[in-house]
Amino acid sequence: MSASSAVGAFVVWDYVVFAGMLLISAAIGIYYAIADGGQKTSKDFLMGGRSMTAVPVALSLTASFMSAVTVLGTPSEVYRFGAMFGIFAITYTCVVIISAEIFLPVFYRLGITSTYEYLEIRFNKVIRLCGTVMFIIQTILYTGIVIYAPALALNQVTGFHLWGAVVSTGVVCTFYCTMGGLKAVVWTDVFQVGVMVAGFTSVVIRAVVVQGGISPILNDSYHGGRLNFWDFDPNPLRRHTFWTIVFGGTFTWTGIYGVNQAQVQRYISCKTRFHAKMSLYVNLLGLWAILACAVFAGLCLYSVYKDCDPWTANIVSAPDQLMPYLVLDLLRDFPGVPGLFVACAYSGTLSTVSSSINALAAVTVEDLIKPYFNLSERQLSWISKGMSLLYGVLCIGMAALASLMGSLLQAALSVFGMIGGPLLGLFALGILFPWANPTGGLVGLVCGFAVSLWVGIGSQVYSALPESTRPLHLSTAGCNLSTPAVDSNWTAMTEMTPLTTTLLNEAADRPYLVDHWYSLSYLYFSTVGTLVVLAVGLIVSLLTGGRKQHLEYGKTLVKEDLIFYSLFSYYKANDEKQVEMLNWKPSPSKVSGTVNPAFSDIELDLPENKEKVNGVRI
């Protein structure tokens, strides 16, 4: 299909579908604001009264993961670099197991609202404050990317008003967060995940029909080098390999699922620990399904535009605009369906932003207000709502800064890596190592954060060379363009951009650190931060008498928390019960003659017993 063919435009029905999604989301917020007498306490508002069940929480966790970053960023990632991104299925499995079996038991047992409460319980107030401030900065930055980037991409392709989209998304999101609290966040996520799946499915089904089935898509992808799942190069400078995705990705996403307030707040709002764990494991099925959809959508994108790449041909100005372009190209004859895809992208935005706003309100109330002011539950509930409103406005304002961040997917994960990595290291230090003390925790956090910022900012300033990113070939041979110069402008851009040529010519002038440190895969930012915190924290703790401290039981991971110990205890108890049953005999084994004891020869085999039972010698 020629990318230069006329694509559709937004019509009334598309706007109706999008507006309907916003109105239903707002209605859910209103419902939970008045249901059960409203949100009477801050616990009701921030934690849903700790009465949530596994399935809606699992869908909520999945919806937050599937932000517009996933809807727009992952297919273009697969289109440009291949289906290796699918290896994240292994990463998500590791992340869910670690979160459910290491972090969740400790947080749930302590009954905390803010994960940063744990830092004070385990270390001290200073470390708690540091963690809270870092989380607030990280979340506002990330939320800015999530709001602005999809709005920009959709605006440039569909003509959807940029700031109209940003403000309407932010206002609706802030509205139902402020009105309904965590319950509204969770149940709007359940609705929005349905919208997202519908939007993704409509695009994939239409692409399969247009291309004549799944086989041609896979065949085109194979011959175009897109089915490159297995690359075991251990070089940490390579952007994506099996090792960077599995190891680096596990550290990055554990920082999100294991200790990030936005995720933890929801699964510890479940009514039992079993429901909390089940929410994570059910959510894993959702992550796999969404990843499969996103990766296959990227392969569809390549199959449709293998001979005429819209980005190379300057029809779209950024890779993140490829999916919206495909939607308008393939679905222009189906009024309302492009609107469904836009609703899909913005549902991802709403679910992520609402989770972030609710989490920001929770940590502000629990970590910055509650410890220092003596307020009633009713007052705290109103303050929580005020904080939701404030952070909603702040996130809309911060959205403008996201335009400076470059690639959507990589920028989002880079923010989490640079700040989330050191925080993950700090929590792991407290939960896994009983001898870690406050001094070690603070010094480790500062060192880890400094190193993460060093490599993260360096990588933004200096672009990595092509041998690290290895973009795949894109062609414009099949384009019907009126200006042939456009083709030569970027014909070999996937092999060598003008910027890359300049960098190669100036390779001798590039500092050593640029190609050996700043070129580190963005997925390793979190790994570096976590490992530095652990290493420095443990050394400093041992040097400052960490082994002499006495911790209360339950502040760290205990053997009873481990599923393997639970299974071992269960089987051991069953085994002992079985042994006891085998050893216990209701009657002697040697029985002969009549059942009348007077005529049985058993007594000849019994040793003399002088004990008495009820006054009778036996």
In brief:
The chain has helices spanning 12-34, 42-47, 54-65, 68-81, 88-110, 117-122, 125-158, 162-211, 214-223, 242-257, 261-267, 273-304, 322-330, 337-369, 377-398, 408-432, 438-461, 466-469, 485-490, 498-505, 512-516, 524-543, 563-583, and strands spanning 612-613, 616-617. With 618 residues, it is mostly helical.
Question: Main sheet, how many strands, which sense, barrel?
Answer: 2 strands, antiparallel
Oligomerization category of the chains in this entry: single chain
The secondary-structure class comes to: mainly alpha
Mean pLDDT: 79
The coarse overall form would be globular
Strand content: under 5%
Distance between the termini: 97 Å
Order of helices and strands: HHHHHHHHHHHHHHHHHHHHHHHEE
Low-confidence stretches: 483-507, 589-606
Radius of gyration: 29 Å
Please describe what this structure looks like:
- By secondary structure, the protein is mainly α.
- The chain is 66% helix and 1% strand.
- A two-stranded antiparallel sheet has the order 1-2.
- Strand 1 and strand 2 form a beta hairpin.
- Helix 4 packs across helix 14 and helix 8 crosses helix 12.
- The protein is globular.
- The N and C termini lie far apart (97 Å).
- 51% of the residues are buried.
